[in-house]
User: What shape does this take?
Amino acid sequence: MNQCPTVGEDASIPTLVDAIVNGARRCTADLLNRQLRQREVIRECIPDDVWQKMSWHQRENTPKCRNKYIWVIDDTLPLYCRAYAGHEYTWKVGVTYVGERLEGGHWVDE
Assistant: This one.
């Protein structure tokens, strides 16, 4: 794309070329949801008032706290996608994060 004769005519074109090269096809919701997926550890504990009401036998056989592993999709858009979607010459490209990160949040195409 940098070999196109009109690249040098507008100061914004070289940055547009970089944004397209680095962002096109890499900034789709489907791809971001796969690439930004990570395992997260959440510590869950039984509240003290509930713990105290449990019988000795229940407390003996139930851990007060445990680690729960969940999959989350990071809600931080990569820099190359921000450059691609935020360029002055791109229009209706990009993604939006919907939902809460720890509760099934994910990227959707705009």
